[in-house]
Amino acid sequence: xxxxxxxxxxxxxxxxxxxxxxxxxxxxxxxxxxGLGIAExxxxxxxxxxxxxxxxxxxxxxxxxxxxxxxxxxxGGGSGxxxxxxxxxxxxxxxxxxxxxxxxxxxxxxxxxxxxxxYLVTGSWSLKAYQEACRLxxxxxxNLATDARTINEGKFGxxxxxxxxxLSKNPAMVYYCDNETVDGVEFPKFPDVLAPAAxxxxxxVIADMSSNILSRKVPVKNYSAIFFGAQKNLGxxxxxxxxxxxxxxxxxxxxxxxxxxxxxxxxxGPIVLSYETIAKNNSLYxxxxxxxVYVAGQVLKKLLATYPDxxxxxxxxADKKAALIYGALEKRPDVYRIxxxxxxxxxxxxxxxxxxxxxxxSEKSFLDASKKLGLEGLKGxxxxxxxxxxxxxxxxxxxxxxLVKFLDEFGKA
Length: 413
Ligand code: PLP
Prior knowledge:
InterPro entries: Aminotrans_V_dom, Pser_aminoTfrase, PyrdxlP-dep_Trfase, PyrdxlP-dep_Trfase_major, PyrdxlP-dep_Trfase_small
Strand content: 5-15%
Cofactor: pyridoxal 5'-phosphate
Family: Belongs to the class-V pyridoxal-phosphate-dependent aminotransferase family. SerC subfamily.
Catalytic activity: 4-(phosphooxy)-L-threonine + 2-oxoglutarate = (R)-3-hydroxy-2-oxo-4-phosphooxybutanoate + L-glutamate; O-phospho-L-serine + 2-oxoglutarate = 3-phosphooxypyruvate + L-glutamate
CATH topology of the largest domain: Aspartate Aminotransferase, domain 2
Distance between the termini: 25 Å
GO biological process, one term: L-serine biosynthetic process
Bound molecules: pyridoxal-5'-phosphate
């Protein structure tokens, strides 16, 4: 099939707008008449600096990111950030204790008695992040504040009520995943119990927004850091963005000396995962893929040109597409069973089963029939099976409508 005959609902990497890919393909050969491609120009050239600055500015404008946040481009994917958050936030915790007057002996005691990182485990990705924290820190320092499987027969699909979360007293961070790509579970809003007080004080909250960033408004000021891989709503695979509150960076909060961390038995992260190092070097500590930043920048420019009211405009479209698709599924409860609970359904990853005497056979015929119509990438994650519609920003309303028509027709047949 040709590109124009396909609507691709894959979960990531996701489909990209064709006009942006065509422009990017040209830029790979010759970037703006320089005779050299964008992936060949030095990452330290003036034109690379301009691309980085414009992309940061456009992201800030689109998401309304306050001035007291730093935007950094990193590598290592979302998974790299599972580790980066642990290293950087535990480091910040040590620095704060030092700033409050703790010497090495006091620190040793504080680490043993008080150091915790809290995780809300609501799906496969927050589970992976939690496991990484246990691997790096030792599980005695990792508090599983909630595990959504405990209220849903061992499976993900619900978010336990906030009043049941067992948060630590002063954790180095509370970590959660805003949208669980595999399980189709999305936090409907920022959790009330984590909200900052009027004076801005409150828990240190970190969120993985890899699969719903740019699709809805984000109360950035409630977070100490958010991160997201580019490969769903932002661009092509290869860069990860971290939006980090400046109070976590020097001069407010320099990372502790490696020798001190070693004395305290705490992990010392790779330099390329250090927010401080990457921020200090304007994301150019080492070779950054400027091509990836360029593509992300083009996506943001297109979003800003399409939606004068910025992310609100895209949010309205995303919500509408999701409502259409869920509506079509709900119309045929005899054929489709939506997996997650209605209150936490993801607008981005719509997970359901095709029922029948033999679910496997029903789902196979669903996938075969959809593929024939150019509706691709619908197979659920290998760990959970079923069907997953990834309703990212690049899926146009007409794409969602085409899918809805198919859901109706398949349901009838
Ligand atoms: N977090 C979420 C929500 C994801 O969906 C993914 C990947 O799909 C990751 C993290 C891991 O990202 P990566 O594959 O870039 O490490």
